[in-house]
Amino acid sequence: MADNDFKEPYNIFYFLGFIAVLLIPTLPATLTWIRVLNGYVGF
Predict the structure, then answer these.
(1) In b/e form, how buried is each residue of 2-13, taking b as 16+ CB within 10 angstroms?
(2) 3 membership: H or E segment, kind and range
(3) I want to staple 38 with a disulfide (CB 3.0 to 4.6 A). Which of 2, 19, 23, 43 is the partner?
(4) Can you tell me the distance from the alpha carbon of 5 to that of 11, in angstroms, rounded to the nearest whole number?
(5) Residues 6-42: pLDDT tens digits?
(6) pTM for the complete prediction?
(7) Within a 13 Å sphere around the CA of 43, how many CA atoms are in the beta-carbon half?
């Protein structure tokens, strides 16, 4: 039980880190789309 409880946080951190690495290249495109949509809405 102790080993399983010890490994779970690391698996969660690896999973979140993997998602973050996948999302990093999309940040410029996301910011661009936010600016475009804000331009159409009028903000």
Answers:
(1) eeeeeeeeeeee
(2) helix 2-23
(3) 43
(4) 11
(5) 556 678 888 899 999 999 999 898 889 888 888 877 5
(6) 0.44
(7) 6
